[in-house]
Automatic annotation (TrEMBL):
NCBIfam families: EutJ, PRK15080.1
Residues in the signal sequence: none
Protein's name in the database: Putative ethanolamine utilization protein EutJ
Coiled coil, from the record: none
Source species of the chain: Bombilactobacillus mellis
SUPFAM superfamilies: Actin-like ATPase domain
Lineage summary: Bacteria, Bacillati, Bacillota, Bacilli, Lactobacillales
PANTHER family in alphabetical order: CELL DIVISION PROTEIN FTSA-RELATED (PTHR32432), ETHANOLAMINE UTILIZATION PROTEIN EUTJ (PTHR32432:SF3)
Length: 282
């Protein structure tokens, strides 16, 4: 499929470019009117908690996040800490937007038990002072933001690689494998004989990117092999890769080579799922 020429990511990329101007800058894209409805997304991730606010046209208004380790593979391991952080993010957002935030949406990874998983996420969101409108599956949120009706969305976050296949708006396959950015960090820590906190800093410092990428390449290849196995019966294109762990210039070429078909990525891929979650708050 010649989807590259179709520029399918133009719309999402425009929104991501708007959003990135305000992320953690204590300001908003614009101030909302007193009565206009707002949409709030809460992404309780393995490496951070992200709060996004959209207007009723799904245009980004505000985004803030805080790094945190209160969640592991979609399971909340420190409830009080998650609530404290989210309360704080909510308060910051309300000050900047000069509006109270009433409702919000959350999300869970596809493999987490939807009953108990969404209950815990709802509890965190409500304990932080929101009314939780719904808890959606993370890949469904990502696909909503990317406006993908048919295709494969691969979300590579801190703890997991989630692969979701959509056909005509229906989720036909979901795989969630415990390989993510944390595993890249551990490989770097092993290679340099340093602790994982130091390795995490080095991983994000892009001045050493070529050397670092060489070390983590087998992890990237493993993620691509997992994705290729999911596609062995039928390939649903486009294949769009999102999530914070893919922030390396050689990631997509390496991934595409193993896959045997071109994968594509949006700008600022770690904000795709949080924006999709906010779109569900309506
Ligand atoms: N500039 C960067 N370079 C390399 N890796 C990065 C960069 N920024 C973030 N990461 C990595 O991305 C991962 C976090 O991605 P993301 O925010 O999508 O995860 P999450 O949603 O918190 O986790 P999960 O979806 O697994 O629960 C971390 O492992 C982090 O080290
Ligand atoms: Mg995530």
């Amino acid at each position: 499929m010649n989807y590259k020429q179709k520029n399918i990511l133009n719309g999402p990329n425009k929104k991501l470019q708007q959003l990135i101007k305000v992320v953690n800058k204590n300001r908003s894209v614009r101030k909302p009117n007193k009565d206009e409805p707002l949409r709030v997304g809460v992404d309780l991730g393995t490496s951070s908690i992200v709060l996004t606010v959209l207007d009723s046209q799904n245009e980004p208004l505000y985004c803030t996040f805080e790094y945190d380790n209160a969640i592991r593979d979609g399971i909340i391991v420190d409830f009080m800490d998650s609530v404290k952080i989210l309360k704080n993010l909510k308060q910051q957002a309300e000050q900047v937007l000069e509006r109270p935030l009433i409702t919000a949406c959350g999300a869970i990874p596809p493999d987490v038990d939807s009953g108990s998983g969404s209950k815990v996420v709802t509890n965190v969101i409500e304990a932080a002072g929101f009314s939780c409108r719904q808890v959606v599956a993370e890949p469904t949120a990502a696909a909503k933001f990317l406006q993908i009706k048919t295709g494969t969305v691969v979300d590579i976050g801190g703890g997991t690689t989630g692969i979701s296949v959509f056909n005509n708006n229906k989720l036909v396959q979901i795989i969630d494998e415990p390989t993510g950015g944390i595993h890249m960090t551990l490989v770097i820590a092993g290679a340099y004989q340093i602790n994982s906190d130091k390795a995490e800093v080095i991983k994000r410092e892009h001045k050493n990117e070529d050397e670092i990428f060489h070390i983590i390449q087998p992890v990237v290849e493993k993620m691509a092999i997992i994705t290729k196995n999911v596609m062995k019966d039928k390939i649903y294109e486009p294949v769009i890769i999102v999530g914070g762990a893919i922030n390396f210039k050689d990631f997509i070429p390496t991934f595409s080579k193993i896959l045997g078909i071109p994968a594509i990525k949006p700008l600022y891929p770690q904000f795709v799922t949080p924006l999709g979650i906010a779109m569900c708050d309506s």
